[in-house]
Structure prediction request, 432 residues.
Amino acid sequence: MTTVLQQLKPAFRIESIVTLDKGVNITWKDGHESFYHYLWLLDSCRCSKCFQRDTLSLGHGHDLLKMPLNPTPQEVKLNREGNLDIAWGGEQTGHHSVFDASWLRVHCHNDPALKQKRKPQLWDSSVSVPHFDCSEVMNDDGVLLSFLNQIVELGVAIIENAPKNEESFRALIERVGPLRQRYHPTNVFTMDKSNKKAQAIQHSYQVETLRNHTDVTAYDIPTGLQFFECTFYENPDSDRQAYSTVVDGFKLAEVIKTQNPWFYELLTTEYIPAGRKRLSVEEKLGEYESSAKKYEWDAYRRNHLIQLDENGDPYQIRYNHNTRIPLEVSFDKIHDLLAAYKRFSQLLQDPEYNAEFLLTPGKVLVVDNWRVLHGRTGIWNPDLRRIVLGAYVEEESFRCRRRILLGDKTGMSDLWLMGCSDRALEILGDRY
Ligand SMILES: [Fe+2]
Prediction:
């Protein structure tokens, strides 16, 4: 009979341990070697005194003020479950730590793969946007995870066969997380050009071409995911009016980096301020709402158009032509900064990168607003009718849902899943 331990892939099973002066060396069954410092192990102890099982956070037994910085192990062994077992000596006599082997493996300090984020798949207009069935996303956690994985990979996906009403739209979004509170009175907005009031104050309700952009660039933290569901489309001309457009911002960043490193440097280091002000505006966003509501909003933010993470890779694009305000750049750089900004704007409309498609009724377009820029082709026939529902989810909520689903796949307890990096959870999901 194979035990649960034997079902684990060799990478998650310990072959042997050797105690050294400062820590313990583990050889894994796949041949990989890891070293764990004793102080790191003691500081990471998950015994019930050091770590509270109910709150999943450090407990009172973990007192850094009392913790020796040169801990001495009394006995280090591999226990029957194949986990690392340490009985501490010296000032810590009586203290006992057991470390889950799989957890140790994804905390290996000399595995460079663990420190890397999954590289996004960059795309141009030839992208084939992945489609998911709405009822499968609603009922199957595996499909929900595949959908969220695609958002991580490509930043865009379409959910089809969705019921064409606000309640179902809201329920679909809540599969991922709570709707983000907007500064507007409503969290689900209905884009319909017959809404004259909204048209007067919102670019997305107007009939001109809506240029590719990210939303809410003037916010401190921009919206993560954006959901758009088309509930109605009738075009008497049967041409490409009110088609959706999407562009991979990370792809454009790469194009600029390759073609013009100086432009790239400017767009990643110089600040482009953004502002948006709406005060005491009475707004009726939904056609079914009985009365208009008031909202007040005055946002200002300085950010780079291309935001880089600790590895120097883009993690966020902020670009919205409509919310740009006067530049705060030194005049010796204004020419080059605007030339760089203009280059990004040109690439945004370039058919090579700009994917265009019709969002037919019952389809929900989901974009990662930290990466993918979205827009819409113009409407020139006054009789064209199109209704789109829209709503936001925080980037954090989306990442949390994906982490929870990845964790479920591992079969591990929250004690060990808690605090693992996204990459670690991805790896642990495949440990059997
Ligand atoms: Fe938008």
Q: What stands out?
A: DSSP finds 14 helices and 22 strands in the chain.
